[in-house]
Amino acid sequence: MDRRRALLTILASTEESVDTYSSAMRELNKDDSEKIKLFMGKFKDVFDDALEQGLDNHQDEALVEAKKTLAQDSMSRFVKLAQVVLEIKIILARTL
Q1: For residue 18, is pLDDT > 80?
Q2: How far from the centroid of its chain's Cα atoms is residue 4's Cα?
Q3: Minimal CA–CA distance to 58: which of 41, 39, 40, 45?
Q4: How far is residue 90's CA from residue 86's CA, in Å, rounded to a whole number?
Q5: Cα–Cα dist 71/88, whole Å
Q6: C-alpha dist (Å) from residue 75 to 48, 69, 71
Q7: Cα separation of 94 and 15, whole Å?
Q8: CA neighbor of 12 nearest in space, from 79, 63, 77
Q9: Would you list the DSSP string of the chain?
Q10: Least confidently predicted of 8-17, 49-58, 61-70
Q11: pLDDT on residue 48
C-alpha cells in the first residue's frame, strides 16, 4: 500500500518528477496491468487529439492528462470504498 501511495503521489504531483512516457511506464510496470491499460489508453487519446490540433507539446499534454486519469481513478475507487463503509456503518447502527 505504501508503494501504491508513493506512485500516486509521483503521478499526481504538479512537479514533473516523472517527465517521460517511458519513465511513467517503468513505474507502472511494477504495478497492476489495469492501471497500465488506463494510462496507455488516455495517453494515446490525448496524444492523437493534440497531434491533430497541431500542438507542438502533444507528448507533454498526453503525459499530464494520463497522469491525471490515474489519480482520478484511484480517488474514485477510494470514494466508492468510503461510501460502502458509511453504508455499512449506517446499517449496523440501525440494527443495534
Answers
A1: no
A2: 11
A3: 45
A4: 6
A5: 26
A6: 26, 10, 6
A7: 46
A8: 63
A9: -HHHHHHHHHHH-SS-SS-SHHHHHHHHTTS-HHHHHHHHHHHHHHHHHHHHTT-TTHHHHHHHHHHHHHHHHHHHHHHHHHHHHHHHHHHHHHH-
A10: 8-17
A11: 95
How many residues in total does the chain contain?
96
What's the rounded Cα separation, in Å, for the pair 64 and 50? 12
* Residue 48 dihedral angles phi and psi, to the nearest 5°: -60, -45
8 close to 74: Cβ distance less than 8 angstroms: yes
Half-sphere exposure for 49 (CA within 13 Å, toward CB): 11
pLDDT over 60 (residue 15): no
Cβ-Cβ contacts under 8 Å for 3 (sequence gap 6 or more) = 30, 31
